[in-house]
Amino acid sequence: MQAEPEKDPVGQQQPRTVGQRIISVLAAAFSFLFLAFAIDGGYENYQHRTIFLTICLVLAYALCSPTGRPVRSTIEKALDGICIIVAIAAGSYGALQNYEILLREGNPVPADIWVGGIIILLTLEATRRTAGLALTLIAITFLAFVYFGPYMPSMIAHAGYDASYIIASNYMSDQGIYGVILGVTADFIFLFVIFGALFERAGAVGLFNDLSQSIMGRQTGGPAKTAVLASGLMGSISGSAVANVVTTGTFTIPMMRKLGYPPAYAGAVEAAASTGGQIMPPIMGATAFVIAATLGVPYLEVAKSALVPATLYFFSVGMAVHFMSHRLGLKGLPRDQLPKFVPAFKGSLPLLLPLAIIIWVLIQGYSVILAGLSGIAAITIISWIRPETRLTPLKLYQAAELAGKNIVGVALACATAGMIANSIAISGAGMRLSSITMIMGDINLLLALGFAMFACLILGMGMPTVAAYIIVSTLGAPTLVGLGMPEMATHMFVFFFAIVCNVTPPVALAAYAAAPLAGLKANAWKVGVEAFKLALSGFMVPYFFIFNQALLLDGDVLTILISVSTALLGVVALSASTMAFFKTRCSFVERILLFAVALGLLYHDIYINVLSGCVMAGLYLFQKYRSAGQKPATEAQTSK
Predict the structure, then answer these.
(1) Nearest residue to 270 (alpha-carbon basis) of 205, 328, 335, 331
(2) Is 36 exposed, middle or buried, given 0-12, 13-18 or 19+ CB atoms closer than 10 A?
(3) 260: left (phi > 0), else alpha (psi -120 to 50), else beta?
(4) Nearest to residue 539, comparing CAs of 508, 574, 572, 509?
(5) How many degrees, rounded to 5, is the angle at CA 344 between CA 343 and CA 349?
(6) Which of 565, 567, 589 is nearest to 577 (CA)?
């Protein structure tokens, strides 16, 4: 008998089987359970994280097939069922024996080793299904490196450890699977995933899109600029590039295509804009919470440091869109086809209040957990102001289900990243890589920074941001700090490049998500290349703040204002150079000149800044004069 149609968490009509309904209930109950844990606060870390990972494993094997196909064979269903049963049994052992396991950390019994080995294998396979093969292979490589240490080349060789020690160190301590990284996910990140799901069910995507259209719609390339602004607004809540693409992109990409934008360009604009969401305060991606835990600073400090870099990134994408739209001759929308600003602003204003409450709670010095709970309570209550945003019991359930499913991939990536970080620690790999980076730094600091950048870009291909950040920050960040780089700037540098992996070919996850919406599912490469071009000027932003701490809001007010102003002008010059358009099309020499101007404006020296600004103004006037002189000829050609 066929199940009756029922709305899924994103509001689409589809039939659900009994099994799907059970999964739905489990995902929703998962969210409510950990919401209750956050309110109560009286839990033991190891037990809390064990329960968290166990439910994530169950959901992963229930939701994701081993081959990625939507329909599973009978054998696949049976194997997945066995994995679910084993995960529950192994997780129950850890949850019930938590105190005993911690007490015998250095002296495990055979049952500990067997259960730990099962948890490691289940986590690796679940990570492959949810986060991709790349992260799983890297984890296996590091585990193998720990085991085969004596057989490695002399530069990286070490004493090596047997399988029992490797399993015990990853399963029975707070440095492996159940380490701080997974703890941050269970304690903090899950709350904000729930908050984001509530925000989405309250209709924030449509409201923010209307507000963005009312502001940007009439300008040159208006629909593309709407995508940038809407993605920035939504990204400050969702904290996920792919989630941002599939929410705001549902509105913006078809709108751009309808107005004649090339499909690859339409998808690229959304992918490039959505990528910046993870670094846009107040609610950044999962990695920001890991940075706060790693540095031992309040989350608000991380958010404050990210504010200007995030703004510069979105501004750079916006300027790239502006110049490219002029090149392509893409116009804005007529006024009568756009939402009115005042109604759009009034509609969005109530949903901005929960964000203000979260910021206020953090500024007052309260915990991140309290801030998340305050935001959840605020959006639930404030949504009832208007009928169209009202979070009814059904919508609350749908939001809880959506959050329960969305956290699975993040949690498994963090658990696997914990194994990688533990392997680096016990094998001494970090010290060896630090030596290489130190040698580069002695030659030239830019070489060391470039090495860290390429490590992020390579390791981050097809990998969640949090995993890429953890690997590179564990390997390279201490060395950069040792070379004189401030801790916050160093970790933000690594964080930024772990984010832009989402638009770095060949594996650009945000572009892959945007391609089907742009009608290019079979050719995501085109979308990725175009998105990379649009985000290219943003690749320079980390170098700006690594050499100028004022861009991290570190310094006096005047210095910060001057630094931000010159950085904005530098981003304009860099975007113009990248897109080969300023006031008019740029020659090769003009592009080189604009690039030099950008570097000059971003250099921390007032005299070089003024000189660069004068050159930029002169080039603009020259191009304006040249374009004015071309108009009569063009008009004459047209009349002929």
Answers:
(1) 205
(2) exposed
(3) left
(4) 574
(5) 100
(6) 589
- Residue 161's alpha-carbon distances to 126, 153, 168, 415, 431, in angstroms, are 25, 16, 11, 21, 18
How far, in Å, CA of 430 to CA of 478, rounded? Answer: 9
> Residue holding tokens 């401030």?
486
The answer to whether the CB of 219 falls within 8 A of the CB of 210 is no
Residue 427 sits at φ, ψ, to 5 deg, of -90, -15
Q: What is the dihedral of CA 105, 108, 113, 119, to 10 degrees?
A: -30
Ramachandran quadrant class, 121 (left: phi over 0; alpha: psi -120 to 50; beta: rest): alpha
N-terminal to C-terminal alpha carbon distance within the chain? 72
Count, residues in the chain: 640
Q: Indicate the SS3 state at residue 333.
A: coil
Residue 224, pLDDT score: 77
Instruction: Label residue 353 exposed, middle or buried (CB < 10 Å: 0-12, 13-18, 19+).
Output: middle
Q: Is the dihedral of CA 339, 345, 350, 352 positive or negative?
A: positive
Q: Is there a contact between 513 and 472 (Cβ–Cβ < 8 Å)?
A: no
Question: Which tens digits make up the pLDDT trace of 67-113?
Answer: 878 778 889 899 999 999 999 999 999 999 888 988 888 789 999 99
Measured CA to CA, the distance from residue 523 to residue 527 in angstroms comes to 8
pTM: 0.74
Let me know the angle formed at the C-alpha of 245 by 240 and 248, rounded to the nearest 5 degrees: 110
- pLDDT for 239: 59
* Both tokens assigned to 534: 């649009």
Show the tokens assigned to 228.
Answer: 């940038």
What is the CB-side half-sphere exposure of residue 168 using CA atoms within 13 A? 18
Q: Which residues pair with 14 in a beta bridge?
A: 6
* Closest C-alpha among 362, 247, 241, 230 to residue 298: 362
Chain center to CA of 640: 54
Taking only the tens place, the pLDDT of each residue in 543-582 is 888 888 888 888 888 888 988 899 899 989 988 998 889 9
Give the 3-state secondary structure of 467-517.
HHHHHHHHHCHHHHHHCCCCHHHHHHHHHHHHHHHHHCCCCCHHHHHHHHH
Q: What is the CA radius of gyration of the chain?
A: 25
Q: In whole angstroms, give the CA distance from residue 40 to residue 538.
A: 42
Q: Using CA of residue 108, residue 110, residue 112, residue 114, what is the dihedral sign?
A: positive
| pLDDT tens-digit series, residues 455-493 | 777 766 666 777 778 877 777 777 778 778 888 988 998
| Predicted confidence (pLDDT) at residue 3 exceeds the cutoff of 50 | no
Q: Contact, 201 vs 207, CB < 8 A?
A: no
pLDDT of residue 640: 35
Residue 260: CB atoms within 10 Å: 12
The candidate with the shortest Cα–Cα distance to 198, out of 343, 31, 357, is: 31
Cα separation, 109 vs 570, in Å, equals 61
